[in-house]
Amino acid sequence: MDYLKGLNEPQREAVQHIDGPLMIIAGAGSGKTRVLTYRTAYLIEKGVDPFQILLLTFTNKAAGEMRQRIENAVGNDGKNLWMGTFHSVFAKILRFDGKHLGYTSDFSIYDTDDSKSLIRAIVKERGLDDKVYKANVIYNRISGAKNRLIGPDEYLNNSVIAADDTAAKLPEMGKLYKLYTLRCFQANAMDFDDLLYNTNILFRDHPAVLDKYQRKFKYIMVDEFQDTNISQYLIVKKLSELSKNLCVVGDDAQSIYAFRGASIDNILNLEKDYPNMATIKLEQNYRSTKNIVEAANSIIAKNKNQLKKKVFTENEVGSLIELIKASSDNEEGRLIATHLFESKMAHGLRNTDFAILYRTNAQSRAFEESLRKLNIKYRIIGGLSFYQRREVKDLLAYFRFVVNQKDEEAFKRIINLPKRGIGDTTIAKIAVTASENQISVWEVVSNIKQFQAGRFADTIEGFADLIKSFKIMVEVNKKDAYEVAAHIAKASGLLRELHEDKTVEGLSRYENVQELLNSIKQFVDDNEVEEEDKSLSSFLQTVSLLTTADSDDPDGDNDRVTLMTIHGAKGLEFNHVYVVGMEEDLFPSQMMLQSRADLEEERRLFYVAITRAEKKLMMSYAESRYQYGRLKPCEPSRFLDEIDPQYLQFAKNIRRPEEKPAPQGFVRMTNREQKAPDFGTSNKPTSTASLIAKPAARPVVGNTYIPSQDFVPSDTKNLVEGDRVEHLKFGFGKVKKIDINGTDRKAVIQFEGTIGEKTLLLSFAKLRIL
DNA sequence: CCGCTCCGCAACGAT
DNA sequence: TGCGGAGCGG
């Protein structure tokens, strides 16, 4: 147990506290993963059977990495641990015991696309307007209900919900929910939320099953506990009811998934449910410099909902955080890429030492282009994952249908793929025949000649025979996943179709399918132990819950700059980090600022972003950016205005670059006077308080604040007193006074009519000069 | 039924 | 801009 020596006091305590409920509050960079790894190793060394340990993580990637580290510590015993994401672990349980709820072990997992497609179909069948009943909205409402454990019947009978739906002009919501659930069930399919919801139902209604797992899992650990929702919490609670050996690790300051039901309340619930729970705080940060840790602390210091803890570090003070200002997103990209290149050369770093973090995936474009121009290799995490590409999903749909013929969404995908002349009309006929005879679609298709002698009977029979031959391979000949998959790819004609497509996309599609087959081969080779584990069905189980976890390039060329969203960056660390697009409406996101709680979440997100950096942190923003191919002006730097100057003064660790000749077209942020721009805040704060005290709603104090979308793009740099201007919202006016302070330009404008005089901040074009 | 064109609309996050 | 869905002619 040498490793215990390398731990600090609270860490060691956390590792050795193995009996009874335990909550570990772990600040960013405090060695959380280490503690979990060692704690698991410690358990095993203390004689706990790895089969009795359940370790729940937040992402597949985290699970994989942690398993590796545990295996390094304890050897092959680590293989026998139950560990994975909530979804994957409970999917496994439902494979075993879903039969109690009427599912077979081959049930399909519907991804979001499948779910939405099913919803669209139902909405259409019911003759509802799909402009009103948008699949997205319906899906989110259903998802929300399931995550709160509200089933369709309860939903229908709940008057509060009904009133809410009526108010949202969606009175049919409840019925849709019910129908959707029914159709999923008939398809022997579960969506992501069902995996949790059904596990709850399973444990609620089948005590014997619950008892089995309660006895099995003597020790349960939950990582990223702050991101669990009620549904997940209840499962964990039930499972640990017997043993009481529940250990959760989390950091309320990094709770950034409230939008999908995660709730800090779970921590409070936990304290209530386990009154004798021990709490250990890990407060020493080993990752970042003092400057970074302090800056991060200051961001969340005044959040209302938080557990008290003080993250500190004994690392060096480090260099200041650097602010970079650009005039457009392209320029932002150029600046960051250049900056990155220069620091790489200056400090002898590798590409992997850098990360560029943004708020939304759509922002990646400018950085990709700039990095490419400088020949800097990069990789993008997130975005369209490999398993979401069309051609990959098509082939997977074949697999799904071969394994589970009730899978309606898979059926719809493949029945006419490759083109075999079976269109909507024919599919509709099949569906009608199926429901008239009260049988499944597959039963109609596989016996098509009994029902129809139409023009397409032969084609359909051919399709059915194809599927049947695949089924025989799987069920009778017990071929492994790779053999079946390769055969299906060929025999279905999918591969040939893609091969014949000589366009660039066609080529990459073909490669993707090959890649998929490769990964299946690898899957088979990795699972040599049991025959069961090599089946197509078992491959599907693994794969339907994978998303962004695609592995790095197989070429071994892994020295790449990482581009990802801040959400995706959780749990990672990089030497140098760029947090980009820190401007109004983007970060904090406009949508998020609807409520106060959400503002707090944006701050936590900011906190997460900052604390990814070990040595150096850069923040940048642009005055305008392209959106939908159009240059869209935005009100820049409002977020920075919020944290600046108060935040800067506090943290004393942000450096605005010294004035030097600006590269073409680029305006460096100047050392402006430390005077708070007085728009937005009337009470001038001297500390970080104002960052927090500012209400989330659009503030109008003294001056009028105008949302950026109301501005006409024009160059206000040319604005002079006496100019006649037009403003989209206020109409015509005359510039009375211009106040230039650094790059901040304010204008007092006397508008015509009854509006009167307004003071407008002119950091970007907002007015048309007439 | 297929394929082409036009149109509308798009927003974050992860399993 | 760029995608997917709808609608229409062949």
From TrEMBL:
Entry-linked SUPFAM superfamilies: P-loop containing nucleoside triphosphate hydrolases (SSF52540)
Keywords linked to the UniProt accession: ATP-binding, DNA-binding, Helicase, Hydrolase, Isomerase, Nucleotide-binding
Any one GO molecular function term: hydrolase activity
Binding residue positions for ATP: A26, G27, A28, G29, S30, G31, K32, T33
Enzyme Commission number(s) from the entry: 5.6.2.4
One of the GO BP terms on file: recombinational repair
EC top class, as a word: isomerase
Domain UvrD-like helicase ATP-binding, first and last residues per copy: 5-289
UvrD-like helicase C-terminal domain boundaries: 290-571
A Pfam family of this chain: UvrD_C
CDD domains documented for this protein: DEXQc_UvrD (cd17932), SF1_C_UvrD (cd18807)
Cellular component, GO annotation: cytosol; DNA helicase complex
InterPro entries: DExx_box_DNA_helicase_dom_sf, DNA_helicase_UvrD-like_C, DNA_helicase_UvrD/REP, P-loop_NTPase, UvrD-like_ATP-bd
Annotated catalysed reactions: Couples ATP hydrolysis with the unwinding of duplex DNA by translocating in the 3'-5' direction; ATP + H2O = ADP + phosphate + H(+)
Similarity section: Belongs to the helicase family. UvrD subfamily.
PANTHER family: ATP-DEPENDENT DNA HELICASE SRS2 (PTHR11070:SF2), UVRD / RECB / PCRA DNA HELICASE FAMILY MEMBER (PTHR11070)
Protein name (Swiss-Prot/TrEMBL): DNA 3'-5' helicase
Source organism of the structure: Arcicella rosea
Lineage, highest ranks first: Bacteria, Pseudomonadati, Bacteroidota, Cytophagia, Cytophagales
